[in-house]
Write a structure and sequence with these properties.
The complex is a heterodimer. Chain A is built from 19 helices and ten strands. By secondary structure, chain A is of the alpha+beta class. By secondary structure, chain B is mostly helical.
């Protein structure tokens, strides 16, 4: 019965979507407050209906009601309560329902923006159109409330590698970020539709873009952490197609967060910002399409189905409509002012955007190359990490350099000489720092990164010190100075986090080591400068799986660490692609991670292991968190 | 029977909620500033 009620709720929410769209279209055309109000109420009705649908599906999942096809496909008797809830976004139908629900919540919030100008109904109608498309998918293509004729005794179960804390929250975090991009897109397109000549849409979008950036960053971070802990290949980023499609909107959005400052401050780059937010949104939809269509094979092939063609039609329709509206009204959104000097903040923001977009394009081409190669040669040729590392490294260096210079350049006209003088001390100090680093590191790539990183940090420090000296001399208190320069210092925090992240990535990729070894109980081995001893092995059995585990003692520079790698063999097969799963043993220190995997029991009393020593990976996690914290602080102080 | 009842109930509730503004005094409806 609950399945039928769920289907009814979804179908009525689809009808409400159509009704709302019609009300908006006619209401905006006729400037009718009444029709727009009916449209707004239909959004609220959709939100209520979808909220009940989500609750119904959660109930079916947690009570393991196998009459529901989605439950039978993603749940099994041995699955815990928490993972049963997480199964809501583990499969196609459930995640589409969740997507629709979150989008309905976001769409609902548009009406609370003030003042209630014509931009808002137009934006609501755009968002409602996108929402209706997702509801269409769960009503007619991939219903989460489909039933089975024969009710199985047990479900097919959740993929073991998805049964991890980070997996439980990583997709949800990414969804929240991805979907939030719809609202700035709706504001941008809404402003064009309503022929709003002001910069209102940027001001209204800014908090949404920060919100989206924070959650996309968090989603990428959690995804990397999950890959690091769960996939057992020693790394955190593989340039997998699905990782790439999550990264691309983040890159476009980061570019927008920079360039929109020019519109907020000087009403510049108005068309460019609209194009950027369109791009970020389309990349998020493209990402969803790639993940769900199964067009490119990936480690994320958990939620594939035949919804690809619907997505293609939707993407084409939306892109064509957005371009048409943009072309039709682009005269209204031209900037009144011009960039007058090459040495100006706005110009450096453009440089920043160009390099962000070059990286986005590189990642895009690398991601779609298998499709292109298949079209021409009949064979899917995957692009490996070497391509991305090689092409992106110079771009990242340029972006890091811009990160140091751009914040201290004034708007409009900046004079070159005073800026060069300002950079003199940081350059000298960073050269000295690099010389000191040369005593410990011999790799050119590492030293180059150290030089630019220290340059960025010294520029930031100099700016803070000079500002504080000046303002304290004027009689201002510390608290007042911090308050006055709040946004600037928060952006420094974001940049500082990114610097830590890049140093972490560079050091771990250059100095990381990998070794395979075989040990029997009691035996020890010296690898590089550390000793490793297999103390014991054990076998355990739980309701769901057989566990083979090992206890090893690792001694490095007088410090001893115990490591417990395990291998799980799931008893109940279901339709899991992977039934054998490794539980990596990781000992984290600030300086290095000891990452140990139990590969196999060789059946002759010996065991096969693999160990990765990943130096300074901690900087990657710390840097990401610092950066995200900076974003959160900026968002909470913005006044709209 | 119960399913049909619930289906009709949800439909009626949703539609009456959406179309409620048609029944009330139009001056209560939120005004939009249509001028740009």
């Amino acid at each position: 019965m609950l399945n039928n009620i769920g289907e009814t709720l979804l179908f009525i929410s689809f009808l409400a979507g159509l009704l709302g769209l019609y009300s908006y279209l006619v209401g905006i055309r006729k400037k009718s407050n009444l029709l727009v109000f009916i449209g707004t109420r239909s959004i609220l009705a959709i939100f209520a209906l979808l909220s009940i649908s989500v609750l119904v599906l959660i109930y079916l999942l947690t009570t393991k009601d196998y009459s529901n096809a989605y439950v039978a496909k993603n749940i099994s008797n041995d699955l815990s309560f928490i993972y049963s809830i997480a199964a809501l976004w583990a499969g196609q139908e459930g995640s589409l329902l969740l997507w629709s629900w979150i989008l309905s919540l976001y769409t609902l919030t548009i009406r609370f923006s003030k003042p209630f100008k014509s931009l808002l109904p137009s934006s609501e109608s755009v968002s409602l159109f996108i929402l209706s498309f997702f509801i269409f998918l769960i009503v007619f293509v991939e219903s989460p409330f489909d039933t089975l004729d024969t009710i199985p005794l047990n479900g097919r179960g959740l993929n073991p590698i998805l049964q991890n804390f980070y997996m439980a929250i990583h997709p949800l975090t990414l969804y929240i970020g991805y979907i939030a991009l719809t609202i700035p897109f709706a504001f941008a397109l809404g402003s064009i539709i309503s022929k709003d000549k002001t910069d209102n849409w940027v001001l209204r979008s800014k908090n949404w873009t920060y919100f989206s950036w924070i959650f996309l960053s968090l989603g990428l971070l959690l995804g990397s952490r999950w890959a690091y802990l769960e996939l057992g290949w020693g790394g955190y980023w593989a340039w997998d197609p699905v990782e790439n499609v999550a990264l691309m909107p983040w890159l476009a959005l980061t570019a927008f967060l920079h360039s929109s400052m020019a519109q907020e401050t000087r009403s510049l780059l108005r068309r460019w910002n609209i194009c950027l937010i369109f791009l970020a949104f389309f990349l998020s939809i493209f990402g969803t399409f790639i993940t769900r269509s199964g067009l490119i094979s990936s480690v994320h092939s958990f939620a594939q189905s035949s919804i690809g063609p619907y997505f293609i039609v939707f993407i084409i329709l939306t892109v064509v409509f957005a371009i048409f509206m943009y072309q039709k009204n682009k005269k209204l959104i031209s900037s009144n002012e011009d960039i007058v000097s090459l040495v100006s903040k706005e110009n450096f923001l453009i440089f920043n955007n160009i390099f962000f977009l070059i990286i986005t394009l590189t990642v895009f081409l690398g991601t779609v190359f298998p499709i292109i190669s298949e079209a021409f040669t009949g064979e899917k040729i995957l692009v490996g990490p070497t391509f991305y590392d090689l092409v992106n490294f110079p771009n990242v260096l340029v972006l890091m350099s811009l990160m140091s210079v751009a914040p201290i350049i004034p708007w409009k006209t900046g004079k070159l000489y005073p800026i060069l003088m300002l950079l003199l001390k940081p350059i000298i100090l960073s050269i000295l720092t690099t010389f000191v680093a040369y005593m410990f590191f011999d790799n050119f790539k590492v030293l180059l990164i150290f030089f630019i990183s220290s340059f960025v940090i010294f520029v930031i420090l100099q700016d803070i010190i000079v500002e504080f000296k000046l303002q304290l001399a004027r009689g201002l208190k510390w608290k007042d100075i911090l308050s006055k320069r709040y946004r600037r210092y928060c952006s420094f925090l974001v940049h500082f986090g990114i610097i830590l992240l890049i140093i972490g990535i560079t050091l771990s990729s250059v100095y990381g080591t990998k070794s395979d070894f075989i040990l029997s109980t009691g035996q020890s081995l010296k690898i590089n400068d550390y000793d490793i001893k297999l103390l014991e092995t054990y076998k355990k059995e739980s309701e769901a799986k057989n566990i083979l585990g090992a206890k090893l003692l690792l001694t490095d520079s007088g410090n001893s660490y115990y490591l417990y790698p395990e291998q799980n063999l799931y008893k109940y097969e279901g339709n899991r692609e992977i039934n054998k799963e490794t539980e990596v043993a990781i000992y984290n220190t600030l300086k290095k991670d000891y990452y140990l995997i139990l590969i196999d029991d060789m059946e002759d009393g010996r065991f096969n292991f693999k160990i990765y020593i990943n130096p300074w990976v901690s900087l990657l996690w710390i840097g990401s968190l610092v950066s995200i914290l900076g974003g959160v602080l900026i968002m909470f102080r913005r006044k709209i | 029977m119960l399913e049909i009842f619930i289906t009709i109930l949800i439909t009626l509730l949703s539609l009456s909620y959406i179309f409620y503004p048609l029944l009330v005094n139009k001056s209560d409806i939120k005004k939009i500033d249509w001028d740009i």
